[in-house]
């Protein structure tokens, strides 16, 4: 049951009012949580992110900063109780979707039904996993990550350990969405590369690697399957890369079987 934890997160976040804007504090809280997780594993980006973390906490009094780890604790407990899109639901509970000019996330039961449809025939899916070891998924507009969480949930229901047999690339143009998705996918130990960028133009601003991606050696694992590499997966993992570099990379591999999907897809 997520609800008690969502209520607790909601009331902790609302303590910032009226001194601060709730949408801004929510965004900063998500970013601080994402940095706290990323900095435990992604050492190459650690220094820059640590500086950003200190910038965020300097904006608030100690009472508000102290709510951030408590909010993260509630998120952990919610995800331990049940798989689901806790942060997407919280975003809507707080009515931040209105503030974000209509950024609506898919309700989890619908995402879950779509994940079952996407997986399709269990025998084909199992054959792919047996042959290659894993499935790869691309979510080009991930929001809070509901579709990816639902995909992991659907695999688990079929008896497949998504922590070992699924790798996800997820993109969103809004850094807040990436921070939410990153926190949830990291806590669920989904191997994933999350990208702040534009799925239509290929422009990339930042990349976030979940602990499951880094600890599982997924960069090397994916690179050893060149025919399955996507344009985004060929990008060096650390420094922010501009779209020009992406195009040059693609030009070097004219036959690469890549086309950006418009929705969550397995490939
Ligand atoms: C309607 S929400 C859906 C999110 C998620 N797929 C879901 O089902 O809940 C659309 C998301 O697409 C993102 N978005 C819009 N244009 C984009 C673009 N060009 N590239 C990447 N993400 C984009 C928005 O920031 C938003 O989070």
Outline the structure in words:
There is one protein chain. The protein is an alpha/beta fold. It folds into two domains: 3-99, no CATH class; 108-266, Rossmann fold, CATH 3.40.50. The chain has 15 helices and five strands. It has helices at residues 3-14, 22-38, 46-57, 62-65, 67-81, 86-93, 96-99, 108-119, 122-132, 146-157, 162-165, 175-187, 211-215, 218-223, 243-251; strands at 135-139, 166-172, 192-197, 204-209, 265-266. The chain has a five-stranded mixed β-sheet. The radius of gyration is 18 Å and the shape is globular. The model is unreliable at 229-258 (pLDDT under 50). The chain binds S-adenosylmethionine. S-adenosylmethionine binds next to α10 and β2.
In terms of DSSP E residues, the strand content is 5-15%
**What is the correct CATH architecture of the largest domain?**
3-Layer(aba) Sandwich
Helix-and-strand structural type? alpha/beta
> Helix and strand string, N-terminal first?
HHHHHHHHHEHHEHEEHHHE
Number of beta strands: 5
Number of domains: 2
- Name the bound molecules: S-adenosylmethionine
Strand order of the largest sheet: 4-3-2-1-5
Q: What name does the CATH topology of the largest domain carry?
A: Rossmann fold
Terminal CA distance reads: 33 Å
Mean pLDDT comes to: 88
Could you estimate the helical fraction of the residues in percent?
40-55%
As a whole number of angstroms, the C-alpha radius of gyration is 18 Å
Count up the helices: 15
| Coarse shape | globular
Let me know the largest β-sheet. 5 strands, mixed
CATH class categorisation of the largest domain: Alpha Beta
Low-confidence stretches: 229-258
